[in-house]
Amino acid sequence: MRILRGALAGAVAGLVGAYAMERFQTLWSEAAESARPKQIASAAKDEPTTVKAAERLTETVFHAELPDEIKPVAGEAVHYGMGMLSGAIYGAVAEVLPIVRAGNGLLFGAVVWWVADNTAVPAVGLSKRPSAYPPSTHAYALSSHLVYGFVTESIRRVLRLVP
């Protein structure tokens, strides 16, 4: 029962952590945009990995193409779903292996960054290899995941105090 409660607390905390991560990314992007010199034309950007994952999921499960108007919402669903799933796994493991809570969730955030962004996502073809990105991209992604891990652990800890 303790592991199940930990997983539930982790899922809720992971949802909050994913939201905090998204807010952090928005602030980072706005700060970077305001610091960048104005350009006449901006380069085309790839779709976010979460949208690519939603497209692949739609094609695999429904054998259909994801409509363009649904892509942003589907990408958000993947982001929050991944946050909740990672948080649930973390919450369950944190019940039996307290070492995973090291650094108040910073270790967890770093591991999620490494496993997801640098290993799993490129392995399934949703992004390029990590070496194809500049250090600034890695700093942004790692920082975002550290925020996710810290907030997830902070919320998980509070939820586990509730009987």
Can you describe what's shown?
- With 163 residues, the protein is mostly helical.
- It has one domain (2-30, 76-161).
- Helix content is 73%, strand content 0%.
- It is built from 5 helices and no strands.
- The longest helix has 34 residues, at 2-35.
- The chain is globular.
Write out key terms for the chains shown.
163 residues, mainly alpha, 5 helices, globular
The helix/strand order is HHHHH
CA gyration radius, whole angstroms: 17 Å
- Count of helical regions: 5
Overall tally of structural domains: 1
Judged by helices, strands and strand pairing, the structural class is mainly alpha
Average pLDDT reading:
92
The count of DSSP E runs of length 2 or more, i.e. the number of strands, is 0
In short:
About 75% of the residues lie in helices and about 0% in strands. The protein has helices at about 1-35, 50-60, 70-95, 105-125, 135-160.
Task: Outline the secondary-structure elements.
Layout: H1 2-35, H2 49-62, H3 71-96, H4 106-123, H5 135-161
Helix pairs in contact: 1-3, 1-5, 2-3, 4-5
